[in-house]
Each structure stands twice: as structure tokens, then as C-alpha cells.
Design brief:
Length: about 625
């Protein structure tokens, strides 16, 4: 079969198109060559038509006519051919200059567009790279900004699928004070090597993967490690931190991480937090205090002078920090046995304002244990019934946790518009679960539920809806409940699960006793671990169901009410029961006040409604 050969003009047009696609520099070079050819030819012809000029002088005059149209006015008009020739050169110069200006203008505009799109490479070292852009980014950035506030130059690079300008606008709209931190956004597919190279991933100190589904998390882990290996940077000190949402994917994510990634799973922990918070308002505030960078933080510090002492003996040796555990032989132990011996190589884990600010006292403080009360060995929770409005995937774990620590016969009513077919309500030992299918957003049905229930109410987010819709439904219920409370002259202890921090601020008008924002707690943890990898084991231990956990227990179980004491004494009393006192909660008319890591020498008294915050193995 005979092929059709392209025509001459088709070839010319094709070559011209290729030339135009080569960019600004190539086009400027072509214009320079065309200008040089025109100037030289015109200069040679000018020397021939004007006998008074040498060839070099004629070429110079030709160049002046090409770049300055005003030169034509000074020509001798008696030589018509020379004037016509220079007029053609001037006209060519005008066209070439116009094209050159257009090319340069377009080139600058293209470069500015590239800068706006974030296509340039970051020239940074020791920065943090956050991969993934969603609503969680604002909490992560806020905490990283706070963590880097004591550094003169702190840099965070955000990689996302959104346009660079959109990401920057949203970040500036949600974060008002960047302190010493620069936030640089890069746009593109977050698993592509070119985007990871633009973020200088190999020079960063840590990588946070902020993706919403587990498959994307694992894919980004693989892409990041593959890139680091290609840059011979796998053995660098940087590490990856990420959250896995489904426990079934936890093993695969850890395999993908190859020991370079801290893979955190806290879905079951959030369920336990919700279960405890609805009975102990203020617990989520304590966790927020522990996990954010705004106040005191956990530090691992070595104190050789403590060698030979037991863990119980060092609890009261620190005035302005709270010892909560040890790192011994590479293992992190929270609330270890009080008789655990400390060696010179062990690290003390304590809650302090900053590392290096707290040193052990040289003398033992004198204690007055006359304020101590007898321990209550029974279950502290009463049989108050609980009303749960809403249903989501946290519910089975919440009910299981409530079944573990409530008194036998406690009634829990769960109301929702619909329930899954496989729900089991009769498999619990201590709690009696009553399912009521109704429209919980309808005022009349909501009032009917409250008439039959107690004062403790837990609101769960509707996970079937998007975050904004779910929080909107929760806000509607909160407003209705507070209106009913006002009209019926009753007081409710309301705990609400929220999806978004911004919506939590809106809900404050409803005077909720406590909020649980699961995404906020996990985002706080992920930023802490990104800054200090050792904290991963500590936080997993703190939020794990096994071993010691965080509890809020009546202060009257430890010290006499209305009697002043100090936190040295409280620490000693808690130690005798195998517990660590880390703070307290006081209930006042204006709401709840939570204090963690109090100064031990300060005098304080408690009332019957006040609580101590302790790390203990159980709630007894």
C-alpha cells in the first residue's frame, strides 16, 4: 500500500509547531538568529548601495535601524535605495521587537503560573512533609507550628491533589498565627516521584501521611519508601507516621513500612474514650492536654543520679513535672511496678513544660498523710441509666467498655432511626441494652425518650453522612436538648461526639459537658509521634485496654474534702494504691476546670464533686 508523503508546507508547519513548543528560551534564540541574519544581509547590501559606508559601519547602522525605529529619521534621503533598504530593516525590527516582548511576557506569565502551581523544588532540610490534604490538615499544621515555635526557621511542606492556591487559601483561612513557620504547598498526585522530589522528601526530618482511607495510606507509604531508596536515603533518621482506620489493614501497613513507619491504630481507643467520657466529663480535655503542644508534653530524659532508686521513690522527687513511666532496656513501661529498680541507662518518662526544665529534688519532702481517706474498693460508677442518641461503628466497642466497668443492672437505652440487622443487645453481663427505633430528630419523640431516661446523654455522629451533615444533625439535637432542659427545669450531663473542630466551636452555645472529637485526638497524637518517634509506644500503652489506663476518680476517695493539702501528699496516697496522680478536675459554676501536671507544692482542697486524674490498672 502506497503511503501518502507529507507536503512541503505540512513539513514546514510541523517544524514550526515543534519550535513554538520548545519554550521561551528557544524562541528568543530563534529571534536572535533571525535578527542577526537580517542585520548582516541588510548591512552588506547597504554598503553596496551607499558607497560612503564601509561594510562594518553599514552592519552597525543596520542594527541601529532594527532596534531603534527613530534612527530612520536621520538617514540621508538622497539615496533612495538605501532609505528603502533601511526602512525594510526598521519594519522587520518593529515586528521582531513586538514578538520578543510578547514571548518574554508570556514566559514570565508561564513562570508565575508554575510558581502558583507549586512546580518548583523545595530547597530545605529538617522540614516536615505532610502528604494529603483534608480537614485534618488544620489540626496537624497548628500543632506542628506550635512545636516549632522555639525555632527561628521552621518549615512544613504540604502535598495534596488540590490546586496550590486553593490549599494556601484554606490554610490561611483556618490558621491565623504561623509564628516562625513557613507552610509551602505543592500540588499533584501525592504518589508520583516528581512531587515527592519537589518536596525534598529525602532531606526532611519526618513524614506525616494524612490520607482518609487505608488503601491510600499504604500506597503512599510504598511510594515514599520507593522514592527514598532511589535517593539512597532509606537509612536516614527520618520516619513516617500515619493512622490506619481498619484493624484488618494494620498488618499490611506495617509490612509496607519496613520498620521505617509508625503505624497507629486508635479506633478502639476512641470508642473507650467515648464510653468513659460520657460517665466522666472532662476526660477528652485531659487527653487533649496530654497530646497537644500548647502546654506540658511528655519527655524521655536520663537522670543518672537516680540509679538504684525504685520507680515509686522518684514520683515525688520532681516539683514541676509528673513522672508516669520508664524506658528500660528499650521497652516503654507506663506505671510500672513501684518497686522497679532504676539503672543509670534508664530514661524517666515525665510530663513537663519543656525538656531540661525539671530536675529531681535532693531532699525528700515531708508529707502529712492525715488527710488520707480509706480506699473505696467497690465500683465507683453508679447504676445511673444512660441514653445514647444515634448509632455508628463505635457502638459495639462503647457498649463493651461500658459493660466492663458499670454496675450490674445498669440500663442503657440506644435510640436511632434504624439499626443494623446483626446488632446484638443481649450479650452483655452488667448492662441491659434497650433498642428503640424512632426519629430522634423529631421533637415529640425526643421528649418521649427523655421522659423515660436518666440525666446522662451521649450523642453519636451519623457516620453514614458526610462530616458537615453529621455535625449539623448533632447540633440540632444539642439545641433541642438544651431547650428541653430549660423548659423542664432539669439538668443533663451531655457528651457529644463531633467530627469537625470548627463545628465543635459552634456547639459551645449548647453548653455541652464534654466533646469527643476523635479525629482531633488522633491528629494530635500523629503530630506528637512525628516529632518524637518514642512516643508511639507510650501513647499506644496509654490508650490500650490492657495494663494501666487514664481514669478520673472521686477525690474524696483519696483525701478528705474541704481540707487543704499539696500534690506531694496526693501523689504518695495514689502511689500506695499502685496509681499515678497526674492532675485533677474541679467543678465550678462556670463549668469544668481540668489541671494536669500541677506544681506539687501548691496547696489545694477538694469538694465532693471534684475528681483526681490518675493512671491506674482499673477503675476500682
Amino acid at each position: 500500500m502506497k503511503k501518502n508523503k507529507p507536503r512541503f508546507w505540512d513539513k514546514v508547519r510541523y517544524q514550526f509547531d515543534n519550535l513554538m513548543s520548545k519554550g521561551t528560551i528557544a524562541l528568543v534564540e530563534v529571534l536572535f538568529i533571525i535578527t542577526a541574519i537580517v542585520v548582516v544581509i541588510a548591512g552588506v547590501l547597504g554598503a553596496l548601495t551607499n558607497g560612503d559606508l564601509a561594510t562594518g559601519q553599514s552592519i552597525w547602522q543596520s542594527l541601529m535601524h532594527a532596534i531603534d525605529a527613530g534612527t530612520l529619521a536621520g538617514d540621508n534621503t538622497t539615496n533612495v535605495w538605501y532609505v528603502l533598504l533601511m526602512s525594510l530593516v526598521t519594519i522587520c525590527g518593529i515586528f521582531i521587537t513586538s514578538i520578543l516582548i510578547g514571548i518574554i511576557s508570556t514566559g514570565f506569565e508561564s513562570k508565575l503560573n508554575d510558581l502558583r502551581k507549586g512546580t518548583s523544588k523545595v530547597i530545605e532540610t529538617g522540614h516536615t512533609v505532610v502528604i494529603g490534604f483534608n480537614d485534618s490538615i488544620y489540626t496537624i499544621l497548628t500543632e506542628l507550628i506550635e512545636a516549632g515555635a522555639n525555632h527561628k526557621k521552621n518549615c512544613i511542606v504540604v502535598l495534596g491533589d488540590e490546586e496550590k492556591e486553593i490549599m494556601e487559601e484554606r490554610i490561611k483561612g483556618n490558621i491565623k498565627d504561623f509564628k516562625t513557620t513557613r507552610v509551602i504547598c505543592k500540588s499533584g498526585r501525592v504518589t508520583e516521584p516528581y512531587l515527592l522530589e519537589r518536596a525534598a522528601l529525602e532531606n526532611s526530618k519526618s513524614i506525616i501521611i494524612n490520607e482518609e482511607d487505608d488503601f491510600s495510606v499504604i500506597k503512599v507509604i510504598l511510594a515514599s519508601l520507593n522514592y527514598l531508596k532511589s535517593k539512597n536515603a532509606f537509612d536516614n533518621d527520618l520516619h513516617i507516621t500515619s493512622i490506619i482506620h481498619d484493624k484488618a489493614n494494620l498488618g499490611a501497613a506495617k509490612i509496607a513500612g519496613e520498620g521505617k513507619a509508625e503505624i497507629l491504630f486508635f479506633e478502639d481507643a476512641i470508642s473507650r474514650i467515648i464510653a468513659h467520657t460520657c460517665r466522666q466529663p472532662g476526660l477528652s480535655m485531659v487527653l487533649t492536654e496530654f497530646f497537644d503542644f500548647g502546654g506540658d508534653e511528655f519527655y524521655f530524659e536520663n537522670f543518672p543520679e537516680l540509679e538504684g532508686k525504685t520507680f515509686g521513690e522518684v514520683l515525688n522527687l520532681f516539683e514541676i513535672s509528673t513522672v508516669i513511666g520508664l524506658q528500660k532496656d528499650g521497652l516503654v513501661m507506663m506505671n510500672p511496678p513501684m518497686d522497679t529498680k532504676i539503672s543509670s541507662k534508664d530514661y524517666i518518662i515525665h510530663l513537663a513544660e519543656d525538656d531540661g526544665t525539671s530536675k529531681p529534688n535532693s531532699q525528700i519532702v515531708k508529707l502529712d498523710l492525715s488527710v488520707k481517706t480509706e480506699a473505696n474498693n467497690g465500683v465507683t460508677e453508679s447504676k445511673r441509666p444512660l441514653l445514647i442518641l444515634g448509632y455508628n461503628n463505635f457502638m459495639p466497642d462503647i457498649l463493651a467498655e461500658l459493660d466492663n466497668y458499670t454496675e450490674p443492672g445498669t440500663e442503657i437505652t440506644v435510640a436511632n432511626t434504624e439499626f443494623p440487622d446483626d446488632i446484638e443487645s443481649n450479650r452483655y453481663q452488667n448492662i441491659s441494652v434497650v433498642l428503640k427505633q424512632c426519629d430522634i430528630y423529631k421533637r415529640s419523640e425526643l421528649e418521649e425518650l427523655i421522659k423515660e431516661s436518666a440525666e446522662d446523654i451521649l450523642l453519636l455522629s451519623d457516620m453514614q453522612s458526610d462530616m458537615e451533615s453529621a455535625d449539623a444533625k448533632t447540633l440540632l439535637l444539642l439545641i433541642q436538648l438544651r431547650d428541653i432542659e430549660s423548659k423542664w427545669k432539669r439538668e443533663f450531663n451531655i457528651t457529644s461526639e463531633m467530627c469537625s473542630v470548627s463545628n465543635q466551636k459552634l456547639a459551645k452555645v449548647a453548653n455541652v459537658n464534654d466533646f469527643v472529637v476523635g479525629s482531633t485526638i488522633t491528629n494530635l497524637i500523629i503530630t506528637q509521634v512525628a516529632e518524637n518517634r518514642k512516643l508511639a509506644l507510650l501513647f499506644e500503652d496509654l490508650l490500650d485496654a490492657d495494663g494501666s489506663e487514664l481514669y478520673m476518680k472521686k477525690a474524696s476517695r483519696y483525701v478528705k474534702t474541704g481540707v487543704e493539702t499539696d500534690f506531694y501528699t496526693i501523689t504518695e496516697i495514689a502511689k500506695e494504691r499502685g496509681e499515678i496522680a497526674v492532675g485533677y478536675k474541679k467543678v465550678a459554676e462556670d463549668g469544668i476546670r481540668v489541671v494536669t501536671n500541677p506544681k506539687k507544692s501548691e496547696r489545694i482542697s477538694f469538694q465532693e464533686e471534684d475528681y483526681l486524674i490518675v493512671i491506674a490498672e482499673d477503675n476500682n
